[in-house]
Design goal:
The complex is a heteropentamer of chains A (194), B (184), C (153), D (354) and E (408).
Chain A lengths: L13 H14 L1 H12 L13 H7 L22 E5 L2 E2 H13 L5 E5 L1 H4 L10 E2 L9 E3 L6 H16 L5 H4 L10 H9 L1
Helix pairs in contact in A: 2-6, 3-6
Chain B lengths: L7 H17 L11 E3 L9 E3 L9 H5 L5 E7 L5 E7 L9 H5 L5 E3 L6 E2 L2 H4 L19 H6 L14 E8 L3 E5 L5
Parallel strand pairs in B: 1-7
Antiparallel strand pairs in B: 2-5, 3-4, 7-8
Chain E lengths: L6 H5 L3 H6 L1 H4 E6 L10 E7 L2 E8 L7 H5 L7 H8 L4 H16 L5 H30 L2 H22 L8 E2 L2 E2 L7 H24 L2 H7 L7 H7 L4 H5 L6 H4 L20 H24 L9 H5 L3 H10 L16 E8 L4 E8 L7 E5 L1 H4 L2 H6 L7 H8 L4 H5 L1
Antiparallel strand pairs in E: 1-2, 2-3, 4-5, 6-7, 7-8
Helix pairs in contact in E: 5-6, 6-7, 7-8, 7-14, 7-19, 8-9, 9-14
Classes of the chains: A mainly alpha (194), B alpha+beta (184), C alpha/beta (153), D mainly alpha (354), E mainly alpha (408).
Amino acid sequence: MGGGADGVAYFGNLETVSKKAVSFLKKQGYVKSMINWGDKFSLWPVHLMTSCCGTEFAAASGPRFDLERLGFLPFGGPRQTNLIVIEGTTTLKMARSVRIVWEQMPAPKWVIAMGACAMDGGIFYDSYNTVPAKDIVPIDIFLAGCPPRPEALARAVVMLQESIVKNRPPAADIQVTAAPATPGPKDVVEAVSK
Amino acid sequence: MTGRKNNRIKGHVDALATGFKYLAEPNRMTLNYPDESMNLKDNYRGFFAVKDKTCIGCSLCEIVCPPKAISMLDLTDAGGKKKKRPMIDWGLCIFCYFCVDICPTDAFQTSQVHDKAFYSETEYQTVHGEPMQYPYDYSKRPDYKEIYESFHDVAPDDPSAGSKKVVPKFDKKRGIKYEHPGQP
Amino acid sequence: MTAASRVITGITFTTDEAKGIFEVEASDGAHLLDLATRLKAAGFDHCLSVTAEDLGDRLAVLWHISSYTNRELSGMNAQIRLVVSKSDNVEVPTLTGIWESANFLERETYEMFGVVFKGHPDMRRLLLPDDFTGKWPMRKDFPLKKTPWRVQK
Amino acid sequence: MIQILSLLMSVSLVSFIEYILPPILYIIVFPGLIVVLLMLFFMIWLERKVAAKTQLRFGPLYVSKRFGGVIQTVADLIRFSFQEFIIPAGADVFAYIQAPGLLMAFGLLPLIFIPVGPYYANIFPANYSLLIVVPLIIITPIYVILLGWASDNKFSFVGSMREAFLVISYEIPLILSILSMILLYGSVNAINGVSFQIGRGIPGIVLNPIAAFLFLVVMIRTTGRFPFEISEAESEVVMGPYTEYSALFFGIGMSLPYIELYSFSLLFSVLFLGGWWPIVPSAAAASGVVGGLLLPGLVVFIKALIVMAFLVFLRAVYPRYRIDQAITVGWDQAVYLGFAAVALSMALVWSGLV
Amino acid sequence: MSAPQDRTATANLTYDELAGLKADRELVLLIGPAHPGSGHMKIKVWMDGDIIQRVDPDIGFVHRTTEKLSENRLYIKAIPIVERVMLPDTINANLAYVIALERLLGIEPTPRAQYLRTLTSEINRITSHLYGIGLYGIFLGSSTVYMWAFADREPLIDLIEEISGARITYSYIIPGGVRWDLPAGFKERAETVLQYMEARLKDYGKIWVRNPVVMDRTEGVGVVSKSDAIRLGITGPNLRASGVDYDTRRAKPYAAYPNLDFEVPTFSEGDCYARLLQRVEEIEQSIRIIRQVLKDIPDGRIISDDIYSKMNPLQKRMYEMKHRVMFPAYMASMRPAAGRSTASVEAGRGEIFFYLVSNGDKVPFRFRWVTPSFLNLPFFTHVMVGQHLADLPAIYGSSDYFPPEADR
């Protein structure tokens, strides 16, 4: 209880102690499974409609397929969300805002590439204004279909939940993306429009 | 129905009454997907696979495919003769079924599988081996023969096979009702 | 091709009724403005589309017009055609003064074909990002991304 | 150290239960922190479930299928607490971190001064309860404005300005509606108010319906429920003052509307719905903790739940007003309504009907 | 982040000096693509207090270069491209392109195919209007209307899914006719869905159309007079809501519309509320048209003889047995004679215009099309000025502007 000789309490520097305690606790089995359970049932996608698959994303949170049953609540700002669904083609302008929104989101974040256009470019594969989603952000789940049915989006969310529970780290932590931190005006545009 | 001058009190009461009506007896039309999944009609355009026997390798399907998802592979069949067979890349395919309809010998086996998703590129572009570089050309891959073997005549696996299959029915009051084929 | 023609409100159109083509050719900028004002007065009060065609060394600029109020004229999509040489800066008078809806349409044609519309209130890029390095993407000489045709010859 | 120990030995166990336990129990358990936390989880889940039911769908379900997804908010809280916390570069760091904490503190303060049982008089000085509750309720939104001001974001700036306009425009109607009830009950002490209603057998809402309706409107405005959800309007200013907040600070900040909803509906049921009306504790029972606090408190809590459920249901029915419409309602119709309420109370008291 | 301006500079200014600093009072809001109220575009808004001074819509976020792609691909490949641009209303986009292509090829579809095209186009018009009402609801804050509208879309989407086999992107109309015929028992099921829709419209009326809060938010907001509507060139229900009696189905008849009787509803006020009422009226008109089409749809073949004669025997047998149209090889190698054609179709949001030029090659020489949302852009630049910030989503939702369709 009493102060030490030079005023440093027995606990040592509180800053480092708390950081060590947190990292230690996070590695424990029960805490990790609790975090996974929390992330699993609270996957809030950010409200960013990149292109026309957005209609199926909206129909998925509609009454018939209602993904809010799985805890999938489309939310306004990027700060409070942990999932970004790239719906369809990402043009040059949209690639920049997808990248910026992806960087604004807090740490454990996942990405679902929805639709053929986000996977390999789909029907707009050789247009001078589109960028494959793989070059913008690391992707966790690829979803086939054009547009994929809302059930397919539900299947992607269920698969993502399974991978979270199985402690599979989000793609954001594994591979740094090929593209630079923020696709500056020059590099994304040159990469495509040459 | 759409008069402009409506009195406000009646408007508020109507809105709240309708809200309570739907709160009291909610006619939900929700399909709780991971446990139940829909039995779609047999003309639904889902995943499909090529029938090796009936295909004559005319590559009409490759010419007509809007997103160039089909690429023809040079193979040799059992008798040693050369043959060309299509290979479909699910990352490009838009399920418009132009290829299925233009095929002169109707050589595509269609199915109603509609909700497949993949963890990584290797799962849909190739069965094994690393993901291909853009632009994709299966014919340049060394192992395209095994890829084709695992692709033709193989009914696509239905991820929601385990769940209860229900049949959607139209209903005057609830819009869509789901009936289990077993019970009435 | 039978060059049928039909006189509508004092202006002769070369027509192809089955295909829905009613065309009038303007010789130069001044003639274009005069034609447009006469057509607007005649009842064509809606500009549907402004576009261009890349004819190798020349550019044909097209305005498609139709009518909202005049019962008889609203049944057809007329078009005014003006052919200009494809020098590096192609100058064409703007018709936003006559049809206000041509504002965004002309900006898009400027961005895609490089047709500068003199007198346009807000002549700048519309669809592509500001730092897009390609020039006039809709012209025939602008290449698409190279993807090999995959039929194995 | 020694003096404290000796004092503790001298106090006998019975007097400990009599004098020291109830205030702690009052603050920590009943209308205090634990019930607030439980109410927070339940109310957010109820809002999503009720809105979903009127929208032809299930709300959160797969979290716990048998209980209809009740612990969905627990899952959200866990996710928020283990998420990375981002401080924007341009934010005023000191205010940015302090704001949610102050927000929660001032949101909880009014709960202490709302009496939920006749025994309340023995715990806290009850004869100033309403006088302390009203200013505390008015102070809370200032920290919402601090939230928006600290995070350097245009949308949070516009959101906090909207909150400021709305707070000022709805202060007078709030004070007028409570003033008319004080006039009616003749005392600032809410316990006298409830005994007044029980004595007459008529709940406050019947005595002065105008004040009740006005208080309801102000309640909808301060807790940001539809149709007054203007400072966090999603389609105009993304999340209003809360846009830049992530992780647990967003969780704390976003819980303020629900805490205010809880304190307001407690106040509403005490002032207008006759407090602990069916249970009329005799003088002897009133002195005991159980009879004087827990049982009547339960009745007040159930009435508060009903009021909260109605307010939460409004999300499924109404879109939102525009900011200038809400301010004009606040400044002229609501203030006239307030004068009418006060006039009605004075008329009732002067004519001796009551 | 820019350094915080020197706040003391304006602290000791008197009020009118402050008013003089107009630029300092202005606030520029970038309602970017990642904003719940902006859709796929960035809206730059200059604001003075709560009043909008100037709006500059920065579109092109979903510009997928459909014209350039279609000019380098076979004629048949443009059908899926044209559909992906107008996703809530795919049949009308597909119909517009195919009419222009048929005029180029000189092919006539059979009467039954014309009726099938009208049937699916009207069903898709209702789903497109419901999509618009749903987004309008979420922009004004009522998530219930968004959920109800998307719930009522589902039975209608299932109707066309029964015919064509896909959920939204049908690629149903091909030059010469349509690809599938009506399944058995379709008429009774369609009748149930229409009755469900009519019952639901009454509930919309109570909770949304006559909701006082909605009327406060939309009456007198974003007024477009009749002359302004024509001058700005807006199209579709927004035009008819301002009193202009123009409908492409009546002015430039196509498909089976000449022998169907339907009224064209118009309103005169031209404000956000009139546009909402206009869409609800048009849903009722579409229900009437669908009933007429189902009543007197002629029998016969669903593909014209030019295409049927080119099919090989197996495909002909498949058509006779299962009424399933298979493509002859001609489809992949169409070479229309050199010429030009234009086509106009009334889609849910307004008039689609097509202009095709072919020089006898396998790929079109010039592929030009204008979508209704591109013509509705003046809603941002002209109608939103002078309104409150909260009116921006109200006007945006009432104009039913769909950014991927405008950027093409």
